[in-house]
Description:
Protein name: DUF4595 domain-containing protein
Number of domains: 1
Structural class: mainly beta
Helix content: under 10%
CATH class: Mainly Beta
Number of helices: 3
Keywords: Signal
Signal peptide: 1-20
Amino acid sequence: MRIRSIILVFVLAFSATANAQIISDMLSEATLEFTPKQEIDYVQLEFSGHGKQSVRKITYNRNLQVVSEENAADAGQAFKITREYDSINRLVKESTRSSSLHGTVFTYKKFSWSTAGAETLEYDKNGKLTSKSTIAYDSLMNPTEVVTFDANEAMIGREEAKYDYGDNIVEIHIYNHDEKLVGIHLTNIYSKNTKIPFMDYVRRMPFEEYRPLCTNWKQFEVAISERKYKLDKNNAWKSRTLEKLFYSPEAGTTRKNFNDTTVRKIFYKK
């Protein structure tokens, strides 16, 4: 089972591009951290951080893939996500319903697969196409490129991932619609509940080569996020603390951002 605990993000304002951090999210959601010894029925998550708390319920199938996810109606807002998979465990459908005092928004995604990769079509509640993404994978089925287009086939943004399996690092470059580099994310491919010296890797990065590709060099920061887990008797994680630091390559300084804690109450199938 793959476990991911450290995320480094090269942060830059990304102008509300829908393509932001897609590959990073795909990696973090690829598997359930820590293989439990007993089949899970559902999980109740409790988040706390930035002075806020929220509760979320997640249901899994026997392959530890998310089938549904919903939150409590915090501050009059609620959402529910449902997913469907094919016979070989590939995601084929995803629907999202979010409700607030301003009304209800419904979106629907359809995934089609081929030997070249996958294509995602997103629709609104009226069945109107709103965006399309193409996803390429390597031989280990990790995403190597995601390109997102609007309904008129104009490119919104692109992500490109390069995997170093020997050093357990993936480097994700994010580009806007003009193919301008707007962010670089670094994360470990397979990780454990231990600290990884990513700062050594960051200090070796060729920042001077990236400078002319960026829209505003002074806005770049490296976000270093470390996740620490506590496990239950079934080897499933019951609490996770996220600690984040930001490193500025131009100033050579770091600053602490926040700590978030997620507590899981796990309900096992009998």
